[in-house]
Write a structure and sequence with these properties.
Elements: H1 2-20, E1 28-32, H2 36-44, E2 50-54, E3 64-65, E4 68-71, E5 84-88, H3 93-102, E6 111-113, E7 122-126, H4 132-141, E8 146-148, E9 163-167, H5 172-177, E10 188-194, H6 209-217, E11 220-221, E12 227-228, H7 231-246, H8 266-278, H9 286-296, H10 302-312, H11 315-320, E13 331-337, H12 338-341, H13 344-356, E14 360-366, H14 369-378, E15 396-403, H15 412-417, H16 428-440, E16 449-451, H17 455-462, H18 467-483
Parallel strand pairs: 1-2, 1-5, 2-4, 5-6, 9-10
Antiparallel strand pairs: 3-4, 7-10, 8-9, 11-12, 13-15, 13-16, 14-15
Helix pairs in contact: 7-8, 7-9, 13-16
Length: about 500
């Protein structure tokens, strides 16, 4: 949709103008990384004139990457550094940055990270608080659904530090047209969040779609003219905000009985008041809020929770969502996306190549419509981009379950790229997609495969199956482990 391009361009232009000045787009622009991230960058910024793409694989020199010539890194040595900008569009960004710096290029002068993403929020600005009611009324008049998420009680009489607004994704375009809001900094920041993915694979939604739906469905009109969540949704959404957006930064104790932290604490007081209103006894620690969200059905899937943990750099949340203690980590689950399942000859090649890295195929589970719908909603936080332009593979269509006879711990480089990944053989997925693109799909990279990072994620994926099918798969795994127990790590403990 056009909103994603407007949002990303607004963010990129602001960052580049601050670093280089307003004429930055007149430099020679180069991509370092001729794969999926490079394609995402080209689609996000069609207004940019990219000179060529660089790839570290010398065999790709002379290829075309979506119309761009592919060069080796040596080509950059012949460029005028004062007229050059290199966007790193590869997962190996740290190694590439070191390569570029060895050529004398400097981060935020010639080197920029090209993984521009709309990670769950954008900023607008309300120039004058007196226009708050007009801004909300303008949206209401056009049928836009919005809700102020928190700290709305004193609006519009007291000036807040910012306003947190949840909006239906299909109504985001209206924010750019709202005459009472501005994209130019000044006045009161309005942080805007949305309920459905915008069109980027790595997008991190602020709330999973089903929780955003519950917040919007509960909304009630305030005297200020704004909409606010109902009391029950307000309590849950604030607890979720503390656990997954703040964690230690909320200054709440990790466990009941720990030192309470600085007082007063706005999160503690508001959660206590909302819990009392709902007649709920609430442990106002991070552990206590985690348990509360679990009882209410508001915990996200572990793969999404891990992304929040990484974004926050939170030791507490990282420990909460880490691998299962004592897990064998010999179960690898790949989600085959619709694009791949619709091409049986390519699917067969993909599965055979996974076996070539030392994995043993156990079972291919074709998802029923109801299982596919559950998988679509739960895995990846529901973020499966399916429009043709995105060049991704659609939603889940099957699970490919493999066993690794000789699992090894990941190395330092593996942990850097995928901190929760427990088996380095999963890295074969990225190289496999590149090979398939070059040999079977006319050079177009399609993201047709998703992999669970560890056994915990794998068995959470299996929970999307009908109970009888899930139990049958679990029995197959245990039988395979018993057939040749010497092949597998002898770590005790149940699966799942």
């Amino acid at each position: 949709m056009s909103a994603i391009r407007r949002i990303l361009w607004q963010r990129l232009d602001a960052d580049m103008t601050a670093a280089l000045g307003a004429d930055w787009a007149q430099r020679k622009l180069v991509l370092y990384g001729a794969g999926g991230l490079g394609l995402s960058f080209l689609q996000s910024f069609p207004q940019l004139s990219i000179a060529y793409a660089v790839d570290s694989d010398p065999s790709r020199r002379g290829e075309r990457f979506h119309g761009l010539p592919v060069e080796t890194p040596d080509a950059l040595k012949h460029e005028d550094p004062d007229r050059l900008i290199v966007f790193i569009t590869s997962s190996w960004h740290q190694e590439i940055r070191r390569t570029l710096e060895s050529m004398g290029l400097v981060l935020n002068r010639q080197i920029f990270y090209g993984s521009q993403q709309a990670h769950g929020r954008i900023f607008f600005h309300l120039p004058d608080l007196a226009d708050f009611e007009k801004a909300i009324g303008w949206l209401d008049a056009r049928g836009a659904e919005s809700v102020v998420l928190r700290w709305f009680e004193t609006l519009p009489f007291e000036r807040p530090a910012d306003i947190d607004l949840l909006v239906r994704t299909e109504h985001l375009e209206l924010l750019f047209e709202n005459p009472h809001l501005s994209s130019t900094p000044g006045g009161i920041p309005v942080e805007v969040y949305w309920d459905r993915p915008l069109g980027q694979e790595d997008e991190l939604l602020y709330y999973p779609s089903w929780l955003a739906d519950e917040i919007l469905a509960s909304r009630r009109k305030l005297p200020s003219g704004a909409w606010a969540p109902g009391d029950a949704a307000h309590l849950r959404s604030l607890a979720y905000h503390v656990v997954f957006h703040k964690a230690e930064r909320s200054q709440l104790p990790a466990r009941a009985g720990d030192e309470p932290g600085p007082l007063p604490n706005k999160y503690r007081e508001k959660l206590r008041a909302l819990a009392a209103k709902e007649g709920i006894e609430l442990d106002l620690s991070l552990d206590g809020l985690w348990r509360f969200l679990g009882r209410e059905g508001w915990l996200p899937p572990v793969d999404l929770a891990r992304r929040h943990a990484l974004a926050l750099k939170s030791p507490w949340l990282t420990a909460r969502v880490g691998p299962i203690p004592g897990a064998r980590e010999d179960v690898l689950l790949f989600v085959l996306r619709r694009w791949l399942v619709d091409r049986p000859e390519i699917e067969a090649r993909v599965l055979a190549e996974l076996e070539e890295v030392g994995l043993e195929r156990l079972e291919i589970v074709r998802l029923s419509p109801s299982e596919a719908a559950r998988s679509h909603a739960r895995i990846r936080g529901g973020n499966w981009i399916e429009n043709r332009e995105s060049r991704v593979g659609g939603g889940p269509a099957a699970f490919a379950i493999f066993l690794d006879p000789r699992p090894e711990p990941p190395g330092e480089r593996d942990r850097l790229l995928r901190p929760f990944c427990t088996n380095p053989k999963l890295a074969a997925k990225t190289e496999l997609k590149q090979r398939i693109a070059r040999t079977c799909n006319g050079g177009e990279v399609v993201n047709f495969l998703h992999a669970a990072d560890d056994e915990r994620e794998a068995f959470e994926c299996l929970d999307c199956l009908a109970p009888a099918r899930r139990a049958a798969v679990a029995r197959s795994i245990e039988r395979a482990r018993r057939v040749a127990p010497a092949r597998f790590a002898a770590v005790p403990g149940p699966i799942g």
